[in-house]
Specification:
By secondary structure, this protein is α/β, with parallel strands linked by helices. The chain is built from 6 helices and 5 strands. It has a 5-stranded parallel sheet, with helices on both faces.
C-alpha cells in the first residue's frame, strides 16, 4: 500500500503472526493502509513506549495489539497513547487455554480502556478498526456497508440451501 498507514497492527512476538495476519488481510481487502510489527512489552519496553507515544504523530488512528500469555502489550500501549487500542488475546504455547490473555486484556483499570475482541479474533479487530475509521470517512463507510451486506447475503444463501437439504 502506498498511502500512509492509519492502523498499526502490533504483536508481542512473530509467533503471533498466524493470528494477527487476519486483521492485516481484512484491512488490505478494504484498502486501509496499515503497518505491521512485533513489539514485546517485556523484552523491548523502551521501543513499545516510543511506538505508543509517536503513533498519533505519524498519522496512526487506531492500534490493534495482539498478545498471548500475560498479554501486557495492549494495556501498556493504551496507557501511553490517546489513540483507541483494540486488544487481541492470543492463545499461545505458554497460555492457560488463552484465558490468561483474555483476562489480562479485558480487565484494564479505570481510565485505560482497551477494546477487546474474542480469543484469536484478529479479523474482528480489523473490522472494528474499520468501523472506527469509517466514522469520519464516507468511502470507508460504503466499504463497511458493502461488507455487512455481503455477510447478510451469505446467511440468506445458506438458508436457501437448507431448504433443499434432506435430513
Amino acid at each position: 500500500m502506498d498511502k500512509k498507514p492509519t492502523v498499526a497492527i502490533v504483536m508481542g512476538s512473530t509467533s503471533d503472526l498466524p493470528v494477527m495476519k487476519e486483521a492485516a488481510a481484512f484491512l488490505k481487502s478494504m484498502e486501509v493502509p496499515f503497518e505491521l510489527q512485533a513489539l514485546s512489552a517485556h523484552r523491548v519496553p523502551e521501543e513499545v513506549l516510543r511506538f505508543a507515544k509517536e503513533a498519533a504523530g505519524r498519522g496512526i488512528k487506531v492500534i490493534i495489539a495482539g498478545a498471548g500469555g500475560a498479554a501486557h502489550l495492549p494495556g501498556v500501549i493504551a496507557a501511553m497513547t490517546p489513540l483507541p487500542v483494540i486488544g487481541v488475546p492470543i492463545k499461545s504455547a505458554n497460555s492457560i487455554d488463552g484465558w490468561d490473555s483474555v483476562l489480562s486484556i479485558l480487565q484494564m483499570p479505570s481510565g485505560i480502556p482497551v477494546a477487546t475482541v474474542a480469543l484469536n479474533g484478529a479479523k474482528n479487530a480489523g473490522i472494528l478498526a474499520l468501523q472506527i475509521l469509517a466514522l469520519c470517512d464516507t468511502a470507508l463507510t460504503d466499504k463497511l456497508c458493502a461488507f455487512k451486506k455481503d455477510l447478510a447475503n451469505k446467511v440468506l444463501q445458506a438458508n436457501e440451501a437448507l431448504k433443499n437439504t434432506e435430513i
